[in-house]
């Protein structure tokens, strides 16, 4: 597991796959896959059996990270030697889902996720920036008040490009009056009338809810539950 900068989907998690699965991906086939415990590498049945994976404990990457240091080091000694024997390549998880979608349709089956093909993705960055300019030129947005992600006054909305398994989205904060929400939605609707990528998820929240707590190695900051005021989804 890790992060990759995909030219289509932007920053994404990636999966390493064995060479046999990689060859299937090259032909837009989505073969049966097994996940190796611990690091989540996806392998074919042949690689799974040849590396005696059945001997390994069933544990996820997240569970591995949360183990006490001594237990982590001991388990790593068991898990890690299996991985150097597995040659393969890494691929963006959204690109993998795209291959699953193509393969499912070819075989007249349903994919394991709801697809969003007609949505703005990282590859559409110029168009996303155009939308952002339309919004900021026609509406005076409040600024984020608490976000640890913003080091200077920033308009209180987050834009996230979409993928094949989730739509392009915008989250607005502190826009609590109905007339202002409708004004913003009208700007967005007018923009999307001119482009083919219609799928989107727009939401308005009352305020941010950042939570900071002390942990063993310092301070942890994360988002708690936030009050949703309005949601607009176009599929």
Notes on the protein architecture:
It is a single chain. A hairpin with a 7-residue loop joins strand 6 and strand 7. The strands form four sheets. Strands 6-7-8-11 form a four-stranded mixed beta sheet, with no helix packed on it. The protein starts with a strand and ends with a strand. The longest helix has 15 residues, at 178-192. Helix 6 (125-138) runs antiparallel to helix 7. The protein is built from seven helices and eleven strands. The protein has 235 residues and is α+β, with helices and mostly antiparallel strands. The protein has two domains: 3-106, no CATH class; 122-234, no CATH class. The protein has helices spanning 19-26, 45-50, 61-65, 69-79, 93-106, 125-138, 178-192; strands spanning 3-6, 10-18, 34-35, 42-43, 88-92, 157-160, 168-173, 200-205, 210-215, 218-223, 228-234. It is 31% helix and 24% strand.
In short:
The chain has 235 residues and is α+β, with helices and mostly antiparallel strands. Helices cover 31% and strands 24% of the residues. A hairpin with a 6-residue loop joins strand 3 and strand 4.
Number of helices: 7
Percent of sequence in beta strands: 15-25%
N-to-C SSE string, H for helix and E for strand: EEHEEHHHEHHEEHEEEE
Number of domains: 2
What general form does the structure show?
flat
Instruction: Estimate the mean pLDDT confidence.
Output: 86
Radius of gyration: 22 Å
Strands of the largest sheet, in order across it? 6-7-8-11
Largest sheet: 4 strands, mixed
């Amino acid at each position: 597991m890790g992060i990759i900068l995909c030219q289509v989907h932007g920053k994404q998690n990636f999966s390493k796959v064995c060479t046999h699965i990689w060859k299937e991906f090259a032909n837009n086939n989505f073969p049966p896959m097994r996940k190796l415990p611990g690091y989540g590498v996806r392998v074919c049945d042949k690689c799974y059996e040849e590396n005696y994976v059945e001997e390994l404990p069933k544990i996820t990457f997240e569970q591995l990270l949360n183990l006490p240091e001594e237990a982590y080091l001991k388990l790593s000694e068991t898990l890690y030697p299996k991985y150097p024997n597995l040659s393969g390549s890494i691929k963006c998880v959204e690109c993998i889902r795209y291959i699953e979608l193509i393969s499912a349709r070819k075989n007249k089956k349903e994919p394991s996720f709801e697809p969003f093909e007609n949505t703005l993705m990282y590859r559409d960055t110029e168009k996303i920036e155009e939308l952002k300019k339309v919004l900021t030129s026609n509406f005076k947005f409040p600024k984020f008040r608490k976000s640890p992600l913003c080091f200077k006054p920033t308009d209180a909305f987050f834009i996230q490009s979409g993928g094949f398994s989730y739509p392009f989205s915008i989250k607005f904060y502190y826009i609590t009056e109905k007339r202002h929400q409708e004004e913003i939605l009208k700007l967005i609707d007018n923009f999307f009338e001119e482009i083919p990528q219609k799928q989107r998820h727009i939401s308005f929240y009352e305020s941010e809810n950042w939570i900071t707590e002390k942990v063993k190695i310092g301070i942890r900051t994360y988002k708690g539950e936030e009050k949703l005021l309005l949601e607009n989804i176009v599929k």
